[in-house]
Amino acid sequence: MGSESKIEIHNFKDEEVAAQEEIWNIILGFTRTAVVKCAIELGIPDILENREFPMTLAELASELKCSQASLYRIMRFLIHYKVFQEKPVSETCVGYTQTPLSRLLTRNGKHSMADLVLVESTPVMLAPWHKLSAWVLGNEGLLFEAAHGKDLWGLCAENPSHSKLFNDGMACDARAGVAAVIGGCPEVFEGVGTLVDVGGGDGTALRSIVEACPWIRGINFDLPHVVSVAPVSVGVEHVGGNMFGHVPKADAVYIMKVLHDWADDDCMPY
Fold first, then answer.
1. Would residue 130 show up in a list of annotated catalytic residues for this protein?
2. Residue 162 and residue 152: Cα distance in Å, rounded?
3. Which residues contact residue 35 at a Cβ distance below 8 angstroms, ignoring those fewer than 6 apart?
4. What gap in Å lies between CA 110 and CA 171, rounded to an integer?
5. What rounded mean pLDDT belongs to the chain?
6. Has residue 263 got a pLDDT over 90?
7. Which residues pair with residue 194 across a beta bridge?
8. Which of 137, 136, 204, 215 is nearest to 173 (CA)?
9. SS3 of 66, please?
10. Pick the catalytic residue: 80, 148, 162, 260?
C-alpha cells in the first residue's frame, strides 16, 4: 500500500473519531447550560466569591444544606469545564474556588452575565427552537409566536416576572457592550447633548453612557410596561411608547441589538 493511501486511511480514522466525539457534544450539549444554571440558582458563585480561602465539598454542602453526593456531581462537572477550579487545602483535601468565568455568574457582580444565562435557559425562551424545522418548511410563522401565540413583547407585558428576568438579562449584555463602546471609541459621544436609546430596557446602557459622559441627557425609550418599572437614574428620562409609531427627538439615536427582531422592511426607517 502506498504512503498516500496510508495517509488517507489515517485521516479518515481521525475524522471518524472526531465525529464520534462531536456527536456526543451535540446530543448532550444542553447539559452545560443546565448545570451552570443550577449553580447560579444555588448561589454557588456568590458563596465562593465571598470566601477568602477555597471551600471544601463538606463546607459548601453545609452552606447549601444539601447532599454532598449530589453536590459533588455538580461540582465535578463544572470543574471539568473549568467553570470553577480546585485548590489544595491540605495534603488529603481540595477546595473549590472561583475562576474568571465563574465570576461572570455571580448575581451582583459588575460584569455578571448570570441573568442572561437564566433567561435564555427558561422554557419560554427554549420553546421556539422546537418549532425550527416547521418554520423552515413554511408550516409556521415567527418561531416565538408559533410557540406561545404572541410575540415576546406581548408575553412580557402579560407576565411581569418573565419581563423582569428578560430585562435583567438584557442589562447584562448592555453593560458589556456599552463598556466596550466607551472604552474603544468614546469620541462618538462628543458633541452629543441628548441621546435616545431605542429599546433601552431598564436604562442600563444609558446609565453607563451618562456616567461616562455627564454632559449627555439620556432618553430611555421602550414599551410602557418596561419603562414603568425602570429604576430612577440621574440624567436619564424614561419614556414609554412604540418605536414604529414615533421616536423621541434627540441629537443622536442609540440602538443596540434591537433591529434584528424584525424584518428588513420594518427596520428600513431606522
1. no
2. 10
3. 74, 77, 78
4. 11
5. 92
6. no
7. 217
8. 204
9. coil
10. 260
Contact between 181 and 256 under an 8 Å Cβ cutoff? The reply is no
Question: What's the full length of the chain, in residues?
Answer: 270
Q: Which is more confidently placed, 242 or 13?
A: 242
Q: Residue 238 in contact with residue 199, Cβ under 8 Å? A: no
Q: Fill in the DSSP letter of residue 192.
A: -
Average pLDDT over residues 159-178: 94
Cα 192–Cα 196–Cα 198 angle in degrees, nearest 5? 145
Query: Is residue 46 within 8 Å of 54, Cβ to Cβ?
Result: no
Crossing angle (nearest 10°) for helices 204-212 and 160-184: 30
Q: Which residues pair with 219 in a beta bridge?
A: 196, 237
Cα separation values, 257 from 72, 96, 122, 266, Å: 39, 36, 20, 15
Torsion of CA 194, 198, 199, 201, to 10 degrees: 0
In this predicted structure, what is the pLDDT of residue 270?
58
Q: How far apart are CA 39 and CA 82, in angstroms?
A: 13
CA distance 116 to 22: 26
Can you give the pLDDT at residue 265? 79
C-alpha cell at 153: 413583547
Query: Can you tell me the distance from the alpha carbon of 42 to that of 184, in angstroms, rounded to the nearest whole number?
Result: 36
In 3D space, the residue among 255, 257, 200 whose CA is nearest the CA of residue 233 turns out to be 200
Distance of CA 185 to the CA centre of its chain: 24
